[in-house]
Model the fold of this input.
Amino acid sequence: MDIRVRYAPSPTGLQHIGGVRTALFNYLFARAQGGSFIIRLEDTDRSRFAQEYVQNLFDTLNWLGISWDEGPDKGGAFAPYVQSERFELYRKHALELVSKGGAYYCFCDEERLSAMRKAQDDSKTGVTGYDRHCRSLSEDQTKAYLAEGRPYVIRLKIPLDEVTSFTDKLLGPIEWKNSDVNPDPVLLKSDGFPTYHLANVVDDHYMKISHVMRAQEWIPSTPLHVIMYNAFGWEHPEYCHLPMVMGQDGHKLSKRHGDTSVNEFRDSGYLPDALLNYVGMLGASYQDGRDIYSLKDMEGLFSIDKLNKAPAVFDYKKLEWFNGQYIRQRADAELVQLILPFASHANLFGPAQAEPDAAQLDLLLKSMTLIKERISFIKDAPPIAAYLFSDPVMPAAQEFIPKKLEQARTRELLSLVSEILPDLISLPEEEAEALIRSKAEAWGAKMGDVMMPLRVALTGSKVSPPLLGSLRLLGLETARRRVGMALAVLRT
Ligand code: GLU
Ligand code: ZN
Done:
């Protein structure tokens, strides 16, 4: 059997984590099996359609590095891959299903349907859905209505008193009593447009989709689809319903939990491979005790038996950890390229200076060893590195003073250490550290009590990237100027 899977989003919103997870698993399955991965646009809901969302779909997958073999932009043997360009096919098949006895014309107008709904509400029996009023229309009656030109929809004739079952590749056998299935859903709307069910089934059939992998929220639609395949006399594809993606509170992941659209993750400086790695583990476990997987790794490892049945919990902290890991794996020069737009935005190179000059670019590159370990997001780099590019605002005297030390003594120690700045800059790091240690001892002070005021003077903060490395990047002139500013504060 040729393995053919598809990602079939409706372009009615931005691509979000759940959708990307579905796309990724389909992609991985295709790659692992040597099959084909297809993109199909399910744009039957024209009222919520926007071209921007189509673009966003392609941009998102391209950014992540998920490629496809057939699709709207690529074409393929089963083109077109856009449902709005296939309306004739759906119409033809709705009519075919009517002639096969699997569907019927319904002429109920909105007035009748709302009266029906109201009666259902009032009865408080919990009965909902279409009451199958037109299912028993005689052939003659139907013909007469059609001849009259009455508007109609075509509904699926759900077999009564039967059970519909399918075996989900992940969840095992699933059975639905037909009495629990949505009663006779519309397949073709009165404007001639297909509904999701019709277009989805017809396309999966004609595009020779072998496996339908989609989120578990689609399970209630699956018996309808199986009934349609049976009515057409077609074989249905294999089904594999993917575990849901939840927020930490156990509710379906949504805006309430934080960023969910891939654009937002991208704009906050997540790296595509970090996001892919994390999303690839939402509902799958590849190997024990291993977290870091490239897309290629996952392509080699993916299989349905590595999927979990239980819902996956989206953990923003864990994703942040992954992002930090991938940042540390990046070459310094590459990181700089990623940081530059954020740096311009944060005015790192000076007010109104979008581009760094050569010296600034060099400084940014050299600063990578200092800050790489300390950021989980690309956008965190400019604020952390800011003290290297311009003098920090000196904090109040209090900030410089180590515990149990007086202001005068702090000033004295800072002034003493400022005299050895040239040595601290020129000596190799370990020797420089040894020098501070021995000097501190000679001055009758703890090493930390010497380091802390110097750190605040050079960086403007008690917490900073490594001090000696920073000092070396700042250079003697800048270091002296800042120590001078700090001493002035400490004299007040
Ligand atoms: N168009 C549906 C969606 O928006 C496709 C569901 C399916 O994969 O069948 O997700
Ligand atoms: Zn009707």
